[in-house]
Amino acid sequence: MIEIIKDWCKGCEICVIRCPVDALEISAELNKRGVYPPKLKEENECNFCRLCELLCPDFAITVIPEEEGEPKETKSRLIIGGIVNEV
Amino acid sequence: MTEMADANVLREKYLRDGMLPTIFCNGCGHGVAVDYTLRAIEELEIDIDTIALASGIGCSSRIPGYINADGLHTTHGRALSLATGIKAANPELNVIVFTGDGDCTGIGGNHFIHAARRNIDMTVILLNNFIYGMTGGQLAPTAPLGSIATTAPYGNIEQAFNISELATALGAAYVARWPIFYPYQPIKSIKDGLQNKGFALIELMSPCPTAYGRRNKLGKIDALWTWYEDNTILIEEYEKIMNYGTDDEKEKVKQMFQIGVFQNEVKAGFFEEYEKMVERLIERDDAKGGGK
Ligand SMILES: Cc1ncc(C[n+]2csc(CCOP(=O)(O)OP(=O)(O)O)c2C)c(N)n1
Ligand code: SF4
Ligand code: SF4
């Protein structure tokens, strides 16, 4: 699962461009800066490599690996003013 | 590899929440450098209260404002002099300087040369974006030939500073250069720099899409990153080509930025030498029975 602080995203799309397995896409959720933060694709092969988290210039992404045996969550969480929304 | 800290954890522990998001433009590399530095501090388990940050003026020099550690912000180009003063006043502190290419090698060029030459015990994280970002894109002394800047509208005709090679030649204890988008190498270099006793320079090639990219047909962040990728070569690869390559290959790699660790030496920094000198003089005076 990936967690995104919605209003910290500036829309550089580095995470989407650099994800080695093309797991991310731009969401349809407009943030208050007027950009669309990323989200995990419905079908994705995210392997929790954390590259998107490391390269994000705005500390907006956290990658949270699923526990062993837990089903993989394809949803991303958008954090808006501390409130968690699933997209 | 040790388990990496979550960005969430780093944010809570080290960032001044109220200051975020940063003022940096969309796609600026400077924020990534903050992330890498925090990860290095976390992995080395350095107490943030033993760290003092110093910086001058520029977008890159704003970084200490985001980190929840003591920091001092000084006039343009004087970050290293200020940092030298901090270290002199309290040698126990881990002094980290955030600076830009304009700040450190333009207006602050002489301070840089002498801090590196004297091997002053500090870690300098230099964000090289080839341009004066904050003031809107004047030519920096690091800009590659042909670069367009507000003060070089027809293309730069000046030879650029090669910062890492300069610091290496000056005898700095640790020197490394990495593009910002390879995470693990810069984090490792920042860790090595923090552990090194002398002057450690980590030059991070940090793209400025706004003031440099747009003028140089590299406004799209991906285009700018690809340019960095196409124009950098590992030091080891460079040496291989210079030894065994064809003339064409050699010409090509000479135009590229070498990346990697340029120097990694174990030697005492200035203030360690200074302590030793003081001890030597005390011993001498004691032997003479002087001063009593
Ligand atoms: C003495 C002085 N001269 C000029 C300036 C204007 N000035 C502010 S920031 C800057 C350039 C900063 O460039 P760099 O260090 O490369 O940082 P960047 O913004 O690119 O990260 C200049 C020339 C100043 N603040 N003080
Ligand atoms: S953790 Fe890695 S694989 Fe998953 S979305 Fe981020 S970059 Fe892609
Ligand atoms: S002007 Fe350049 S260096 Fe300054 S914040 Fe914008 S992209 Fe970064």
Keyword list:
heterodimer; A: alpha+beta; Alpha-Beta Plaits; four-stranded mixed beta sheet; two-stranded antiparallel sheet; 6 strands; 25% strand; globular; B: 292 residues; alpha/beta; Rossmann fold; eight-stranded mixed beta sheet; 41% helix
Task: Give the helices and strands, then pairings.
The complex is a heterodimer of chains A (87) and B (292).
Chain A: E1 2-5, H1 14-18, E2 24-26, E3 38-40, H2 51-55, E4 61-63, E5 76-80, E6 83-86
Parallel strand pairs in A: 1-5
Antiparallel strand pairs in A: 1-4, 2-3, 5-6
Chain B: H1 7-14, H2 30-43, E1 51-55, E2 70-73, H3 79-89, E3 94-100, H4 101-107, H5 109-117, E4 122-128, E5 131-132, E6 138-139, H6 163-169, E7 174-179, H7 184-195, E8 199-205, H8 209-213, H9 221-230, E9 232-234, H10 235-244, H11 247-254, E10 257-264, H12 270-288
Parallel strand pairs in B: 1-2, 1-3, 3-4, 4-8, 7-8, 9-10
Antiparallel strand pairs in B: 5-6, 7-10
Helix pairs in contact in B: 2-7, 4-5
What does this structure look like?
The complex is a heterodimer of chains A (87) and B (292). In chain A, a hairpin with a 2-residue loop joins strand 5 (76-80) and strand 6. Chain A contains two helices and six strands; from the N terminus they run E-H-E-E-H-E-E-E. The model of chain A has no long low-confidence stretch (mean pLDDT 86). Chain A has a single domain (2-86), classed as Alpha-Beta Plaits (2-Layer Sandwich). Chain A has 87 residues and is an alpha+beta fold. In chain A, the strands form two sheets. In chain A, strands 4-1-5-6 form a four-stranded mixed beta sheet. In chain A, strands 2-3 form a two-stranded antiparallel sheet. Chain B is of the alpha/beta class. Chain B has a single domain, classed as Rossmann fold, CATH 3.40.50. In chain B, 41% of the residues lie in helices and 17% in strands. Chain B contains twelve helices and ten strands. Chain B has helices at 7-14, 30-43, 79-89, 101-107, 109-117, 163-169, 184-195, 209-213, 221-230, 235-244, 247-254, 270-288; strands at residues 51-55, 70-73, 94-100, 122-128, 131-132, 138-139, 174-179, 199-205, 232-234, 257-264. Chain B has an eight-stranded mixed beta sheet with strand order 2-1-3-4-8-7-10-9, sandwiched between helices. In chain B, helix 2 packs across helix 7 (184-195) and helix 4 (101-107) crosses helix 5. The model of chain B has no long low-confidence stretch (mean pLDDT 95). The chains are: A alpha+beta (87), B alpha/beta (292).
